[in-house]
What we know:
This protein is mostly helical. 96% of the residues lie in helices and 0% in strands. The protein contains one helix and no strands. The chain has one helix at 4-95. It is rod-shaped and about 135 Å long.
Amino acid sequence: MASFESLYNKIEYNVKAALLKTAELQRENAELKDRNAELEKEGAMLRRQLDELTERLKLIVITKTVFNKKDKQETKKQINDWVREIDKCINLLTNK
C-alpha cells in the first residue's frame, strides 16, 4: 500500500493539474465569448446590409417596371404617330 505522503503528493499534483486545466479552459472560454460577440456583431451588420440591398432591389424592380411601362407606352405612341403619318402620305399620294 502506498504511503500517506505519496497519496498526498498524488492528490496535490492532480489538484494542481485540474486548477491549471480549469484556468486554461476559462481563458479559452473568454476568448471564445469574445469571438462569438464579434461574429454576432458581424452577423447583425450583414443582416442590415442584406435588408438594405433587398430594399434597393425592390426599388430597382419597381423603377424598371415603371420605366418599361413608360417605354411600352412611348413606343406604342410613336408607332401610332408613324402609322398616322404614313396614312397621310398614302392619302396625299392617292388623291393626286
